[in-house]
């Protein structure tokens, strides 16, 4: 760590370094997820976790033995996130359906570069960070609180309300613990929590989001049909997989579409621009997802097109979010996927996941 050490700070001993690493590393993934929920950005979350660990490491000898090490890391991480949000032009990150009404117009291909868009979170990063065991003190189960729609909803909360809701209703901390961490009174935490819950109730009238279950046989068949529809450019088969009131968004393009008919019209227009697609199964935000590769003509390589996140309800697609260029290449790296698809990779992965 010496190359990144802040100047004019006493450095922990080698023994202290080893102890810090042993204590801190088990919390890295859950802290990254916490920062992602706070910020709505995978890449900002990675930076803030690095900042958290650097700050904690440099202060470790002064902290040692004063209380809960995990709570101390969360305090540093949460305050770092709050500082980052305060320095932003906007504290919110968005999905297109949160900013404007649905449209029937075709997009002009120009991204809304002045908007901070929500990013997906690779499900591979959730291992060890999402606890399947129910926390009796938490209002939202871990897998509910990582879904794309939930993360999008809490981005619209003021930063402090967002922090309180995550600490109390997702992590299951008591109001007194949250007050100590955030530096406020218990009544102020309870007040912020109540306001946050009231805002979320508008998005979730039943109190909670639908839990994204592990794909059952019918859903796996649905995903297989989805893949084939894209690769065969079979518009009828694709539209048949959608709920009547399905929604389609594609950040950073601001346009979005509601309902089968509007979505069909869009894809009838969009698919004409490509020679074809190849889809590789992945997962994001605890939901089924695909990495789509496209080409403009038959002799061109398959290049990164989009990360596609599906929300499934009653064995049909309720919402489809495509994260497209210019952000998609950066996201492909985050998902551990190549920007150019080797000829054998897509088939190999589909066979592994029984989607061929």
**Spatial sequence of strands, sheet with the most strands:** 2-1-6-5-4-3
N-to-C order of helices and strands: HHHHHHHHHHEEHEEEEHH
- Rg, Å, rounded: 22 Å
Binned, the helix content reads 40-55%
Which CATH architecture of the largest domain would you pick? Roll
Number of E-type strands: 6
| Individual helix count | 13
Unreliable stretches (pLDDT < 50, length at least 5) are 1-10, 352-356
Shape: globular
What is CATH's topology name of the largest domain? Nuclear Transport Factor 2, Chain: A
Question: Could you explain how this protein is built, in words?
Answer:
- It is a single chain.
- The chain folds into three domains: 17-87, RNA polymerase sigma factor, region 2, helix turn helix motif (Rna Polymerase Sigma Factor, Chain: A, Orthogonal Bundle); 130-206, Winged helix-like DNA-binding domain superfamily/Winged helix DNA-binding domain (Arc Repressor Mutant, subunit A); 217-352, Nuclear Transport Factor 2, Chain: A.
- The protein is of the alpha+beta class and 356 residues long.
- Helix content is 44%, strand content 15%.
- It has helices spanning 14-24, 28-39, 42-63, 69-87, 148-154, 159-170, 175-182, 186-203, 217-231, 235-240, 260-270, 328-334, 345-352; strands at residues 242-250, 253-258, 276-284, 287-295, 303-313, 316-324.
- It is built from 13 helices and six strands.
- It has a six-stranded mixed sheet with strand order 2-1-6-5-4-3, with helices on both faces.
- Helix 3 crosses helix 4 and helix 7 crosses helix 8 (186-203).
